[in-house]
User: What shape does this take?
Amino acid sequence: MEWPAWLCGLWALLLCAGGGGGGGAAPTATQPPVTNLSVSVENLCTIIWTWNPPEGASPNCSLWYFSHFGNKQDKKIAPETHRSKEVPLNERICLQVGSQCSTNESEKPSILVEKCISPPEGDPESAVTELQCIWHNLSYMKCSWLPGNKTGPDTNYTLYYWHSSLEKILRCENIYNEGQRIGCSFNLKDPSLEQGSIQIMVKDNAGKIRPSFNVVPLNSHVKPDPPDIKNLSFKNDGLYVEWKNPENFQSTCLLYEVEVNNSHIVSEIFPVEEIKCQSSEGRICLLFPSVLPDTLNTVRIRVKTNKYCYEDNNLWSNWSQAMSIGEKTSSTFYITILLIIPVIVAGAIIVLLLYLKRLKIIIFPPIPDPGKIFKEMFGDQNDDTLHWKKYDIYEKQTKEETDSVVLIENLK
Ligand SMILES: *[C@@H]1O[C@H](CO)[C@@H](O)[C@H](O)[C@H]1NC(C)=O
Ligand SMILES: *[C@@H]1O[C@H](CO)[C@@H](O)[C@H](O)[C@H]1NC(C)=O
Ligand SMILES: *[C@@H]1O[C@H](CO)[C@@H](O)[C@H](O)[C@H]1NC(C)=O
Ligand SMILES: *[C@@H]1O[C@H](CO)[C@@H](O)[C@H](O)[C@H]1NC(C)=O
Ligand SMILES: *[C@@H]1O[C@H](CO)[C@@H](O)[C@H](O)[C@H]1NC(C)=O
Ligand SMILES: *[C@@H]1O[C@H](CO)[C@@H](O)[C@H](O)[C@H]1NC(C)=O
Ligand SMILES: *[C@@H]1O[C@H](CO)[C@@H](O)[C@H](O)[C@H]1NC(C)=O
Ligand SMILES: *[C@@H]1O[C@H](CO)[C@@H](O)[C@H](O)[C@H]1NC(C)=O
Ligand SMILES: *[C@@H]1O[C@H](CO)[C@@H](O)[C@H](O)[C@H]1NC(C)=O
Assistant: This one.
């Protein structure tokens, strides 16, 4: 920033006061900026910025570097001359770096130098959308996406992935359609990964769509397999449920939901956070008080990861297989009644309709032979038949009612 002297004179107060120490005595020499800031991409989404120390720094200065991303996020002061970040490269991302002589955050760093990296070329509307991944059973990863809205229907997609225990980027082979979504799943078993992330990229073989990226933290998006109910029994005036957790999960990392259906309570869901006992063979057991053996109880369980072991916990496992215990009779009786009542009602309605159609008009007793069975029924319902008569004079009535409304309005 060396300005000609005359310009300096002109704009002295505005520009040159305190400026880069060009002419006269610089009172407090500000730190010179870092040099050769550059950016590169490793793996799929590891963005690395590197820079060199400033030229002409004071020998007394022990150099520290202050950096932050474009929107002043993630400020950092460190002695290294590089910084990296795993970030889905779907948007332009910039890092600003300056040098300073201490770790003190309030020390003013040098002029900040900025370097940005842009997403890959291509129309953003051609890129796939809603790229998301779920880690099933801590054993395989299933990613799926929606086609971009400027994409041909015969696009052939490819998914690439990388994580820290892989030496190179791998390609996912099993692309399939799942309704509107397109997906791919691949094995992912390494438990040491749970602290890291997996980097995902989806593009097409022909290079016509813009690649889409995602970075999936592996301590979230975990969907356990359903548990396995092992035994139901009645003990101490309650229902005793014994089940086995999905493999790969410690019971301290899971949250449970047990559903009990019977004819007294249609469906009751018990959220369970604390497990009260643990029987042998690594089973989990729970007592549900006041669930009685006099009816058929159907039980099923599902689990999800809890906040003690995982970041998010929104993904319930599928329900386990249901298991039943108790007296079947009352329930069968219930079902029988539920089935028989509509059949009887339907039969009665059909007979009634046929009957009415044959006679065409509403009739009063005496009823001819075929209706003898219903004689009593109709005797009771004589009042009902009045409705049919009302129907005939319906129009007249409405007219009268309208008149009275008008009258009332006029009174107001
Ligand atoms: C910046 O990079 C160039 C070329 O790589 C090199 O010659 C120069 O010395 C570097 N500057 C500093 C301050 O390291
Ligand atoms: C560096 O520090 C020494 C001793 O603290 C001091 O004498 C010297 O003037 C300093 N040099 C500069 C360039 O500030
Ligand atoms: C940081 O610098 C400010 C002013 O420059 C000073 O007041 C403060 O004491 C310093 N803090 C540390 C921890 O050195
Ligand atoms: C879940 O993981 C366990 C242990 O890796 C494995 O034995 C089991 O088959 C997996 N379940 C499914 C549905 O893949
Ligand atoms: C495509 O998607 C973008 C952003 O989601 C939307 O603004 C645009 O209206 C869509 N275009 C069509 C043709 O649906
Ligand atoms: C996708 O693959 C199929 C079969 O390999 C091929 O017929 C089709 O042309 C491909 N689509 C594009 C857009 O390349
Ligand atoms: C289920 O539990 C009951 C009572 O504890 C026991 O008698 C029965 O043997 C168990 N059944 C199985 C299959 O474990
Ligand atoms: C329990 O009842 C609920 C609600 O009626 C129903 O959605 C669920 O499927 C039932 N569960 C079983 C195992 O039948
Ligand atoms: C969970 O349920 C879905 C839909 O019923 C099924 O496609 C999937 O295979 C089930 N997953 C497991 C692990 O059983």
Remarks:
- The first helix runs from residue 5 to 10.
- The domain at 225-325 is CATH 2.60.40.10 (Immunoglobulin-like).
- Residues 1-28, 385-412 have pLDDT under 50 and may be disordered.
- Residues 154-156, 205-206 surround 2-acetamido-2-deoxy-beta-D-glucopyranose (ligand 6) (CB under 6 Å).
